[in-house]
Amino acid sequence: MLDRLKKEQGFTLIEVLAALLIVSITALAFTAYFSNAMTFAKTNQNKTIMSNLARNALVYMQKQDFERLEAYFDSSSATVVRAAEAEQPRRVGITPETFENCTASSSGACAFRDIFEGGNLEPVTAVLSPRVNGIAYRVVIEYQQDLNRAQNAGGALLLPISATVTTAADGAAGPGANAVTVEGYVNAQSIR
After folding, report:
1. Is residue 102 included in any domain, yes or no?
2. What residue ranges carry the coiled-coil annotation (predicted)?
3. Which domain holds residue 130?
């Protein structure tokens, strides 16, 4: 019986070290894979949040007074969100700062505060400057005048707008979640 135990051979130290090396390399590859998967999932989560915030802003704007909103976009007091470029006209809209310092006697963009129900700016401020999961976002409503149709094609009944959501601080939502834009229309009261 002793002879049989002496003849049994186990793994040598080199074989054990080689096996550990192979297992370590495999584990390292899986770690990198799961790390990338977590980053991808976090980025998608933040893009989903930004998309939902943009949709929320569009729904909020669709409930506002159509005529006053149209008058605001056509006025010289409208906030410029994009300056005129070579072949692109200037773009106007509503930013979180548009109605930030309004008082009852303010002029300019503040004269249009009655776009919102009762001139109450708290809800629009909450919609345009939301905070979700500790991250501050910034929503910009942009009037897309170049998408406006002719009056005989229903253009007088629709205001094409878009809502673009970014983070208030660059990179706060993680890599790849820079901005999300959702487009929509504000319908005239006659077709609501």
Report:
1. yes
2. none
3. 13-191
**Cα–Cα distance for residue pair 163/161, rounded to 1 Å:** 7
Pairwise CA distance, residues 172 & 167, whole Å: 6
Q: Is residue 3 part of a domain?
A: no
Any domain includes 145: yes
Q: pTM to 2 decimals?
A: 0.77
Cα distances (Å, whole numbers) of residue 85 to 77, 133, 140, 145, 182: 20, 36, 19, 15, 22
Q: How far apart are CA 73 and CA 68, in angstroms?
A: 9
Number of domains in the chain: 1
Give the tens place of pLDDT for each residue, 40-68: 888 888 889 999 999 999 999 999 989 99
Q: Which of 87, 82, 97 is nearest to 144 (CA)?
A: 82
